[in-house]
């Protein structure tokens, strides 16, 4: 099968996409892929095709690459979008540049759009080796999937089973020109060390090593799929939220059925559950989960992760993104127009039935407040919060309506007859 036919077959499932975008670096791989797509569309109708070149500005020679990409796309009559990004100097420039590129790509992708990238079989082998040497688990050793979600669309790698030698042969046959990134020769970059030193040595002993490593990645991807299926089954038995807290838009799991699973299934479930919101912890960091799980019932432990915390409260574990820590009760004072109040870093408060009462204000709990439930009666606010099972991390930001020093309404929990105080707290965004 020719290279053209291989790409045509790999892209068959995505022919109904609204648009195809191609990540064009100007290097050999992406240049060959763009040229192939330009040839395919001459023979058959394809989705609208646009190339995207992201300029990182990390090296002087790269300043010429946008012009090269512009000329290359013009010759193929393919629209090109140029974007520049600024990379903060840090220890891992490769990873920072990669994140910046994909943030740009996500901005282009709408629903049913596809981003095509040009990673090939050699890249897959490097990725597997790199992650293996870092002690990755099954998910990491699955390396780069052929297709995965990206933004509102999908990322597809149609060359992932193709050897680089095939791409070179195609480029020479078609007389293509491309740019060479000088950093690809730097052996202080781990991937380059694997590419130029480790893999050639392995190939001298095992000529089909790249194919074998790529197959291993496929086996790992299949195994990860089975682990995800198991996680979904386990999740069905532990995904719950106290009925009184149905209004709280934070993910939670019931602790007891989760803790009854084997430790391996606990970790598998939590990896799956946490994956949409945070970088997953390495093996050494799982002690934080044990601390949350096994803490005494009167404790309020938390497990700190990269983008948020896992907290234990009211017989459940909760995911709290770091955005929840931005809240401050200091910014709220007396409010006269009580209909809908935009709370600072704390969602929206809808007020009904209090419009005629100007002697009220919205505030937050400081401690020791009493809830007025009749002309002569009141009781400690803490009693209502305990009875309602409000987690400790929610209580400081629960909006209250005060009349004088007494609380007359508690958002989502209690208000006088004919009145309502509805709070829509911030979620995960």
From TrEMBL:
Catalytic EC class: ligase
Any Pfam family the entry gives: TilS
One Gene Ontology cellular component annotation held by this UniProt entry: cytoplasm
InterPro entries listed in its UniProt record: Lysidine-tRNA-synth_C (IPR012796), Rossmann-like_a/b/a_fold (IPR014729), TilS/TtcA_N (IPR011063), tRNA_Ile_lys_synt (IPR012094), tRNA_Ile_lys_synt_N (IPR012795), tRNA_Ile_lys_synt_subst-bd (IPR015262)
Catalytic activity annotation: cytidine(34) in tRNA(Ile2) + L-lysine + ATP = lysidine(34) in tRNA(Ile2) + AMP + diphosphate + H(+)
Annotated ATP binding sites: 25-30
Coiled-coil intervals: none
Keywords in alphabetical order: ATP-binding, Cytoplasm, Ligase, Nucleotide-binding, tRNA processing
Enzyme Commission code: 6.3.4.19
Broad class of the protein's primary localization: cytoplasm
Domain Lysidine-tRNA(Ile) synthetase C-terminal: 360-423
GO biological process: tRNA modification
Compartment(s) of residence: Cytoplasm
Protein family per UniProt: Belongs to the tRNA(Ile)-lysidine synthase family.
Role noted for this protein: Ligates lysine onto the cytidine present at position 34 of the AUA codon-specific tRNA(Ile) that contains the anticodon CAU, in an ATP-dependent manner. Cytidine is converted to lysidine, thus changing the amino acid specificity of the tRNA from methionine to isoleucine.
NCBIfam families listed in its UniProt record: lysidine_TilS_C, lysidine_TilS_N
Record text about domains: The N-terminal region contains the highly conserved SGGXDS motif, predicted to be a P-loop motif involved in ATP binding.
Protein name (database record): tRNA(Ile)-lysidine synthase
Source organism: Azomonas agilis
